[in-house]
């Protein structure tokens, strides 16, 4: 397990929110004794599985626990376990902001604003009001109206986004951060439907995250009432630093900022499930108005300002 080293940067808000609950602290105490599934946690806490699922999602988003699918007793169980052994928070030092501060540039990319794609059924797009075109017809991914899409899904393939690069030559880039709600794409919905989702930046593979499934155990908090399939995903935060690439505070790969070839005007972000992956469970992207988090794809770059 790792030590989470945080500070007052707002990127750590999911961590602090995860800790700000008596129930979630009790869950951490229970998991310190060993992995447990949601049903076991619910029984120990005297709560419903739906309530415990909500709390474990917040703990997972904060990087405090991890979940994985394990075969046990003739069935498949989603087991939760601790992902960190300690949390350390560094408070600002007097004058520290003047000596070394960070400038952040943030761009929110709507789900439908991809610039290139190659998708294969099952697939489709929708706004919060209606489906764009027809289900399982990749041609509609080139429909002009796809710019208004707030959810998209495909069985395998990729979507690619171009993002403006506001880091000027000579500026010290310190970190790249990507935040998005994402999950697998099962026919209908299926909790046990793993998918190896590949994250590329400027054609450099940052790493692979295996989505556990396409949950259908309840409605997405924001998902429109008329929508009956993919309900919500997981809010994932990918960070590329000088030390490596991390997802929700856990090391994803050894790829560092120095490994990414910068271009002058833009970044190219590609999200892909290759047909040859070990787990080809597709991908669903949730934007504003769908899922549990009211956001599009959020891309941030941090650069150093001040003396070093």
Automatic annotation (TrEMBL):
Molecular function in Gene Ontology: DNA binding; DNA-binding transcription factor activity
Superkingdom of source: Bacteria
Record carries keyword Plastid: no
Residue span, HTH arsR-type domain: 4-98
Record keywords: DNA-binding
Gene3D superfamilies: Winged helix-like DNA-binding domain superfamily/Winged helix DNA-binding domain
Pfam families: HTH_5 (PF01022)
InterPro entries: ArsR-like_HTH, HTH_ArsR_DNA-bd_dom, WH-like_DNA-bd_sf, WH_DNA-bd_sf
Name of protein: Putative transcriptional regulator
Lineage: Bacteria, Bacillati, Bacillota, Bacilli, Bacillales
């Amino acid at each position: 397990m790792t030590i989470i080293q945080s500070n007052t940067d707002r990127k750590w808000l999911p961590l602090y929110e995860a800790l700000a609950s008596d129930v979630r602290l009790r869950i951490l105490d229970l998991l310190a004794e060993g992995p447990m599934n949601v049903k076991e946690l619910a029984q120990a806490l005297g709560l419903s599985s739906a309530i415990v699922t909500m709390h474990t999602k917040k703990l997972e988003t904060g990087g405090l626990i991890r979940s994985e699918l394990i075969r046990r007793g003739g069935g498949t169980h989603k087991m939760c376990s601790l992902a960190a052994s300690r949390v350390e928070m560094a408070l600002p030092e007097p004058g520290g902001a003047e000596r070394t501060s960070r400038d952040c540039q943030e761009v929110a990319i709507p789900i439908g604003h991809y610039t290139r794609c190659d998708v294969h059924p099952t697939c489709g797009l929708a706004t919060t009001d209606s489906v764009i075109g027809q289900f399982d017809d990749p041609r509609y991914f080139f429909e002009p109206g796809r710019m208004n899409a707030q959810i998209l899904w495909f069985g395998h393939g990729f979507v690619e986004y171009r993002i403006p690069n506001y880091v000027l030559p000579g500026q010290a880039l310190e970190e790249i951060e990507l935040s998005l709600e994402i999950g697998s794409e099962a026919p209908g919905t299926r909790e046990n439907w793993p998918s190896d989702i590949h994250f590329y930046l400027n054609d450099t593979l940052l790493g692979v995250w295996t989505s556990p499934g396409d949950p259908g155990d309840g409605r997405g908090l924001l998902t429109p009432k008329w929508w009956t399939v993919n309900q919500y995903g997981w809010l994932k935060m990918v960070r590329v630093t000088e030390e490596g690439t991390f997802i929700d505070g856990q090391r994803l790969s050894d790829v560092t900022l120095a490994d990414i070839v910068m271009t002058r005007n833009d970044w190219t972000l590609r999200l892909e499930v290759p047909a040859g992956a070990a787990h080809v469970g597709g991908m669903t992207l949730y934007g504003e108005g769908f899922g549990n988090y009211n956001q599009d794809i959020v891309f941030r770059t941090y650069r150093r300002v001040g003396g070093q």
